[in-house]
Design brief:
This protein is of the alpha/beta class. It folds into 2 domains: 4-195, 3-Layer(aba) Sandwich (Rossmann fold), CATH 3.40.50; 205-300, N-(1-d-carboxylethyl)-l-norvaline Dehydrogenase, domain 2 (Orthogonal Bundle), CATH 1.10.1040. It has 15 helices and 8 strands. Strand 6 (151-156) and strand 7 (165-170) form a beta hairpin.
Length: 331
């Protein structure tokens, strides 16, 4: 049962996310935090960013100027976005009076618990507290909080300023109003939130990515392909397929008119044998050297910022083409 205060807070979230009164604190100025700050500013939110790194203002300006060029809907004026982002001197100043807190600190649970204890003391009593953690459980993150009902995971798929997915993961003590508020908040940013039914380490997208990447490493170590050939296999086949249809829908169509059941009946035995033959590579020093060496040689003449901007532009083009195709299909 929601408390009167929780109900009031839930009703307040009926306001449009783009209203100027909305404010958000971003804790952590790494890649994810800076990307989030750009997204929030692009949607009219007032942003306070905090990070103990001495160059925080410099990296903020550099990042926003880069990310502003590859936002969904077209490039934005970086100076306009920077005008909505202030660098707070400390965490307490950043979260004071805000509606939402998006935490992006290092993946160390004790550090995050300490951060959330400070947030809980300094932020408004009904502020929504979200973590970008890529695998830590919200129940564990909120263990020492007095008001754990307002904390949950809002895990983006990198980079947040481009890709739509946000995995929303409630903890055992997360209240329903907070889940509803998080869904509404992210949808207002143009995101595609998916609420997980229960906690699981690594959530969904990263577990899938890990499973596929494990087999990628195995195939390279076995000499079946090199890293460049492996990337080409993916981008010219399942990468294209899965950008428009997920694995289950793809397999269902692969079964013809009989669908997935027909596919299981006829191809299931071979699929089961393949599952048993999948590799189990270990991240030994030798494995790391083999894989990293090939990748570094492949990209030795390209700068990181050039590669990330090219990636973002390509992914935006795929998203735009997908939306256009869906629109034609609806027509």
């Amino acid at each position: 049962m929601w408390s009167d205060r929780s109900l009031a807070r839930r009703n307040a979230w009926g306001l449009a996310v783009s209203e100027n009164s909305r404010s958000v604190a971003v804790i952590g100025a790494g890649t994810i935090g800076l990307s989030w700050a750009t997204v929030f500013a692009a949607h009219g939110l007032q942003v306070r960013l905090t990070d103990p790194r001495p160059d925080v203002r410099q990296v903020l300006e550099e990042s926003v100027r880069q990310f502003a060029r590859t936002l969904p809907g077209g490039p934005r004026d970086a100076e306009e976005l920077l005008g909505r982002i202030e660098v707070a001197p400390d965490l307490e100043a950043a979260v004071s009076g805000v509606d939402v807190v998006q935490e992006n600190g290092p993946e160390r649970i004790e550090l995050k618990r300490e951060l959330f204890a400070r947030v809980e003391e300094a932020a408004p009593a009904e502020a929504l507290i979200l973590s970008s953690t890529s695998g830590l459980m919200p129940t564990e993150l909120s263990r020492d909080m007095r008001t754990p009902g307002r904390l949950l995971v809002g895990h983006p798929f990198n980079p947040p300023h481009v890709l739509p997915l946000v995995e929303i993961v409630p903890g055992e003590r997360t209240e329903q109003w907070a889940v509803d508020a998080a869904v509404e908040f992210y949808r207002g940013l143009g995101k595609k939130p998916v609420v997980l039914h229960r906690e699981v380490p690594g959530f969904v997208a990263n577990r899938l990515q890990s499973a596929i990447f494990k087999e990628c490493v195995h195939l390279v170590l076995e000499g079946v392909v090199d890293v460049a050939e492996l990337d080409e296999v993916v981008t010219e086949s399942i990468g294209l397929r899965w950008s428009t249809q997920g694995p289950f829908e793809s397999m269902h169509l692969g079964g013809g008119p009989g669908g997935l059941r027909h596919l299981f009946e006829h191809l299931g035995p071979g699929m089961s044998r393949r599952w048993k033959s999948l590799g189990q590579p270990e991240l030994t020093p030798e494995t790391i050297e083999t894989i990293s060496g090939q990748v570094e040689e492949r990209f030795r003449d390209r700068r990181y910022d050039e590669m990330t901007e090219a990636r973002d532009r390509a992914q935006l083009a795929v998203l735009a083409a997908r939306e256009a195709a869906r629109g034609e299909g609806d027509g």
